[in-house]
C-alpha cells in the first residue's frame, strides 16, 4: 500500500453491524471511512492505537434537551457532554427556554446556534405552533427538520404545551404527507393531575409522591390513545420514552397490524429504579418516572424480543440548584445522561447480560440514524460513512462526576461501578475528545438534515 494512503488509521476491536472484528483497523481520509481491515495496519499520516478497546460507531442520541434551562446556548455544554460520552450526533428537542422551536424563524435561529456552538453534529426536532394551518410541516421539513415532537402532558403553556387528541389528527395527516415522523411524550395529563391533586391535598410531597402520581396507567393510556389515533393515518409514530414492558407490547401490536410505529426507551429506565431515587432524591426525578426493579427487569425482556427500536438519554442539564427542593413537585424533571450513556449501557447490556456489543451499535447508533434519515452517513462503521467513532476502554471504572466535561457536575451514575469508560471520540475522522479533554472547538459540529 502506498505511503500515507490514509489521513488517519484507528486500531482496535471494530464493532460492525453483525460482529466484532478483533485486532482490526479503520482507515480514514477526508473525514470518511475508506477501509476496514484486520491485521497489520496500512500506512497513514496518523495512527491511533487503541488495541484491546472497542471501536463503536459514534452514538446517535435520539433525545436531548439542550435548551430546557438556558436556551440555545445550552447547545455548547450539551455537545461537550456528548463528545465526552462517545455521542457524535444528538437530536435536539424543540422545547427551548423561553420559546419552543415552532416556526421558520426560530428554526433558522437554532440552526445558526448549532453552527456557532456545537461540538458534535446536531439534528433538530420541531413542535407544532398554535395554528390550524399545517403548511408549516412541509416548510420546516424542507429546511431540514428531522421530526416533530408533541406531548400528551403540558409542562408549560408556551414552551412545552399539550397537543390535544383532536389536534393530533390533522397533524398526523400533514406529517404523513411530508414523511416526517411524529414523536410523543407519553403521559396522560388527566390521570397525572388526578393523582397530583390528591397527593397535594394530603400534603404528600416527598420522593415517593413522584412515581405514585405518575403511575404506569398514565403512560399506558397515552400509548394506546395516541397509537390508535395514528393508526388511522399513514404517519410514522414514535414513542420517545417507554419505561414499561407493557407499553412496548402495546406498540408491538400496532406494528403487527402494519402501522409505522417505533419505540424508544432511555438508558435510565434500563439501569435505575425507584430505590435509586430514594437514595438520590430529586436528582432522579424524571418523567415518566423511574419504575420498580421488577419493571426494569421486564423492560430488558422487551430489548431481548426486539420490541425496542432505540435507546436514548433524554438528557437535560439542570444545575443542582433545580434538584434540591424538599417538595418533589417543585424540582426540575430530567437528568444529564450523555456522559454516562455508553458506560452504563455497556455495563448493563454486555457485562451483566452478555449481549454482543453489536446490540449497542444497533440500538444507540444505527437505528436512530435510520429513523431520522441520517443513515448511511451516520450510524455505522462502514465504508463511505462519516468516520464517527467512540473508543471504549473495557475495565473496572467508578463513574466520577469530577471528570465530567460538562459544567453540570452531577449525573445519575455518580459513584456507580462501570465496566469501562469512553477513551476517545472521533467525529469525521478528527479526535474531539481524548485523555479526558475536549479537543474540538465550538462550531466544529454541523447541522444535520435528513438525507434525501
Automatic annotation (TrEMBL):
InterPro entries: Amidohydro-rel, DHOase/Allantoinase_Hydrolase, Metal-dep_hydrolase_composite, Metal_Hydrolase
GO annotation, biological process: purine nucleobase catabolic process
Domain Amidohydrolase-related residues, every copy: 55-415
GO annotation, cellular component aspect: cytoplasm
GO molecular function (one): allantoinase activity
Pfam families per record: Amidohydro_1
PANTHER family for the chain: ALLANTOINASE (PTHR43668)
Protein's recorded name: Allantoinase
Organism: Bradyrhizobium canariense
Amino acid at each position: 500500500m502506498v505511503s500515507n494512503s490514509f489521513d488517519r488509521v484507528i486500531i482496535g476491536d471494530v464493532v460492525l453491524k453483525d460482529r466484532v472484528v478483533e485486532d482490526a483497523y479503520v482507515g480514514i481520509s477526508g473525514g470518511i471511512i475508506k477501509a476496514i481491515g484486520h491485521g497489520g495496519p496500512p500506512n497513514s499520516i496518523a495512527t491511533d492505537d487503541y488495541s484491546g478497546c472497542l471501536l463503536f460507531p459514534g452514538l446517535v442520541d435520539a433525545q436531548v434537551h439542550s435548551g430546557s434551562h438556558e436556551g440555545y446556548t445550552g447547545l455548547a455544554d450539551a455537545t461537550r457532554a456528548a463528545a465526552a460520552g462517545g455521542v457524535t450526533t444528538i437530536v435536539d428537542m424543540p422545547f427551548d427556554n423561553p420559546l419552543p422551536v415552532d416556526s421558520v424563524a426560530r428554526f433558522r435561529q437554532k440552526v445558526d446556534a448549532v453552527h456557532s456552538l456545537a461540538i458534535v453534529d446536531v439534528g433538530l426536532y420541531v413542535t407544532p405552533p398554535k395554528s390550524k394551518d399545517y403548511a408549516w410541516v412541509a416548510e420546516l421539513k424542507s429546511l431540514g427538520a428531522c421530526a416533530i415532537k408533541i406531548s400528551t402532558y403540558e409542562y408549560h403553556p408556551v414552551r412545552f404545551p399539550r397537543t390535544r387528541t383532536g389536534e393530533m389528527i390533522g397533524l398526523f395527516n400533514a406529517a404523513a404527507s411530508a414523511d416526517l415522523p411524529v414523536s410523543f411524550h407519553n403521559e396522560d395529563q388527566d390521570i397525572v393531575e388526578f393523582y397530583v391533586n390528591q397527593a397535594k391535598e394530603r400534603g404528600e410531597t416527598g420522593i415517593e409522591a413522584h412515581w405514585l402520581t405518575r403511575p404506569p396507567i398514565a403512560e399506558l393510556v397515552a400509548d394506546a390513545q395516541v397509537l390508535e389515533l395514528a393508526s388511522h393515518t399513514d404517519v410514522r409514530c414514535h414513542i420517545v420514552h417507554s419505561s414499561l414492558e407493557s407499553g412496548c407490547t402495546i406498540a408491538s401490536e400496532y406494528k403487527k397490524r402494519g402501522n409505522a410505529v417505533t419505540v424508544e426507551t432511555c438508558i435510565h429506565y434500563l439501569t435505575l429504579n425507584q430505590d435509586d431515587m430514594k437514595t438520590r432524591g430529586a436528582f432522579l426525578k424524571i418523567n415518566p418516572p423511574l419504575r420498580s426493579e421488577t419493571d426494569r427487569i421486564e423492560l430488558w425482556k422487551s430489548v431481548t424480543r426486539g420490541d425496542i427500536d432505540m435507546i436514548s438519554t433524554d438528557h437535560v442539564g439542570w444545575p443542582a440548584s433545580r434538584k434540591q427542593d424538599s417538595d418533589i413537585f417543585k424540582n426540575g424533571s430530567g437528568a444529564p445522561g450523555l456522559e454516562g450513556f455508553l458506560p452504563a449501557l455497556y455495563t448493563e447490556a454486555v457485562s451483566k447480560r452478555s449481549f454482543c456489543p453489536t446490540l449497542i451499535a444497533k440500538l444507540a447508533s444505527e437505528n436512530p440514524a435510520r429513523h431520522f434519515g441520517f443513515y448511511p452517513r451516520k450510524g455505522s462503521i462502514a465504508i463511505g460513512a462519516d468516520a464517527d467513532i467512540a473508543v471504549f476502554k473495557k475495565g473496572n471504572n467508578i463513574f466520577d462526576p469530577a471528570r465530567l466535561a460538562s459544567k453540570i457536575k452531577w449525573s445519575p451514575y455518580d459513584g456507580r461501578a462501570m465496566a469501562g469508560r469512553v477513551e476517545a471520540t472521533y467525529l469525521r475522522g478528527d479526535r474531539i475528545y481524548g485523555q479526558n479533554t475536549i479537543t474540538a472547538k465550538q462550531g466544529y459540529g454541523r447541522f444535520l438534515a435528513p438525507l434525501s
